[in-house]
Amino acid sequence: MTGIGGVEMGAQAARSRALAVLRVRSRALAVALLPAAAAVILLVGGSTGRLAGGGWDVLRWVVSVLALFVLLAAAGVALVVARSRPAMTPTVTVAEESAPDLYRMVRDLADRLDVPAPSAIALTPDCDSWLEDRTHPAHGPPPVEQHHHDDLAGPGGPAHRKSVAAPVLVIGSPFLWWMRVGELRAVLAPVVAGTGPSAHPDIAAARRFIRGLDAAVAVASAGRRDPLSRVACAGLGWASRLLLRSCRGHAAEMERGVAAAAAERAQAVDYGLRIVAQEQVGLAYAGWDRLLTRVALPAWRMGRWPSRLDVGVVAALTELSRRDRLAEGFASRLGERPACDLLEEPGVMDEAVSLLAARLFHGGPAETGPDWSPVGWEEYPEEVVDRTWRTDAARLHRVLDTLGVRRAAEGAAPGTEGPTLARVLDHLTTPVTASPAPRTAATDAETQPGSDRPPSTDAARPVHDDQHASDLPSGDHDAARLPSGDQDASGLRSGDHDAARLPSGDQDPSGLPSGDHDDAPRPPYDDRTTAETTATTATASTTAAVDDDEDDLVGTTARGAALAAGLSAQLAREEAAARPAGVRPPSSAPGPAAGPDAALWDDRALPLLPLQPPRTGREILTAHITAMVCCAAMDTAGAAPALDWLDGPSLLLDGARTTDLAPCVLSLVETGDPGPLRAWMTDLGIRPEKPVRLV
């Protein structure tokens, strides 16, 4: 009885708030009709001779014109609110013939909950599930009429709807692949229970009104070029926002009441299993987040999209269960039937969802092409990891050529003029003064305690280092440090599987940063000498360095800052050249059973959900040096690229992952000290003087 009472209380609260929203609509209509009513009174008074005279005639004309203007404006706003297409989530539609078992499970769940079954099922590349109303004419053909009992009729007795279109059930695709059938059923129970409140006439009308206002605001925000359209859009936006502000509180309380009623109703279905299932929801989100940011993102940037992302999240979470002692019990679940078995062709659905994820999170095209092709997990190390490292290494040497850095040191052995790691190390190494300068009275005064003048090192600094690091191009923020020692190999603390996004500077144990650079292009380097280029860059960025207090290149050397600026500019040019191809509209609509509903949502601004902010200059430089070290390890020490399900690209030496490369690279970048990196390479047999193969 407690559950029944909770359902009734939540339902009545939702209905009362829906009526409050509809009263706002009625008051707006009354305000729009008020000038017309006044005009009618004046016209009737004039025709009967009661309101005669010149003043009344003028007033009648003014009020009539005002009433006509207000009616036209109100009709225009109402027309836009009614006809504007509400926003809809990009999904992959699941046809009933392609997943009869899934539809059967959802309908059985709806019968047990005594609510209408969802009209359709769709998948989304996210760890969430919800109901979405797609009854607007712009979303497709008119819905089929359904008759059912209304649970929110109120104390006066049951009411019956004449025609009700149930909402669409949107399911997060990682749930289907990671959860078992019983767990998915328990997770979907409170979501499916929401179809009951959604069918109530007042709640449905209130939701349509709010969605229409939201769509009208979007139409007004688009704007037009001609003055008349701009004025009309400004008026439409003002009226729509005013109504939305008036409905905001009531709409929020209405949705809370709907959620409370659905949750109370769902308590009677699989209550014990739902506790375990909720743990799987958090774990799935953590694995899905790491898979996107660490594994999928590097492939997307290479023009390849992993075609089995949902299979990858299962592998990632299985690996997490193996590493984390607190998650060992989750591995025993894998013997039960997975929820993806409810699909007739899970591989086709996984591929469609993977392509949609690439569009939403990265902005990739809607179709496969020469520069946008799928990649399987077995091909990932060679097609993505190896190509990424060699592409970054090639870009690093191109920028060094632009800076005028020698290909090989003077007196080097023949055959070492190619792209070598030694060239990078020699360039970034901070020169050490051979002998101390003679002491003078001036230098003694400079080094006295409390002296305001810092020790001068201009005489000992080479021409290439004649600018301080703070005078060089600035980044955005300081690079994030590596995970602390109390974390496990996966980068998560034991038992900590929160759904927080990873920071852009977070690095995996192999030292490969997970972010990328997206900044506006910096001034390109030309073919002048190194000293001239460094001086020009420093002069151009002095003002920016003063204005930016959080210069991420302050902690690097002057040569490192100049190299980071060149890499940032080169990356920005490459991304600007490739961006038009990534956002072009699809040439043909995909199939309804497995393709994303591209025709139902606006894809002109991609990515809709970018995963990470742009990388800073320090992170870009660190990633390129790490890539060069990995290339040298593969070509001279027999190392191999590999895929780690939790950390993405990794380097294998003698079958073991390298976990201590990042601190050595950071030492070179921040202080110009190559000692730790050279010692690391010596221990592993890596030859920095040998040329490497580039893309």
Write the layout of secondary structure elements.
Layout: H1 2-47, H2 54-83, E1 92-94, H3 100-113, E2 120-124, E3 130-132, E4 149-150, E5 159-160, E6 168-172, H4 173-178, H5 181-192, H6 195-198, H7 201-222, H8 227-266, H9 271-301, E7 304-306, H10 309-323, H11 346-362, E8 373-375, H12 380-402, H13 421-428, H14 441-446, H15 530-540, H16 542-547, H17 558-582, H18 617-636, E9 640-644, E10 648-653, E11 656-657, H19 661-671, H20 675-684
Parallel strand pairs: 2-6, 7-8
Antiparallel strand pairs: 1-2, 3-6, 4-5, 9-10, 10-11
Helix pairs in contact: 1-2, 1-7, 1-8, 2-7, 3-5, 5-8, 5-9, 7-8, 9-10, 12-17, 12-18, 17-18, 18-19, 19-20
Characterise this structure.
The chain is 51% helix and 6% strand. With 695 residues, it is mainly alpha-helical. About 23% of the residues have low confidence.
Provide a short characterization of the protein structure.
This protein is mainly α. The chain contains 20 helices and eleven strands.
Strand order of the largest sheet: 1-2-6-3
Distance between the termini: 70 Å
Main sheet overview: 4 strands, mixed
Number of H- or I-type helical stretches? 20
Summed over residues and divided by their number, the pLDDT gives a mean of 76
Provide keyphrases for this structure:
695 residues; mainly alpha; 4-stranded mixed sheet; 3-stranded antiparallel sheet; 11 strands; 6% strand
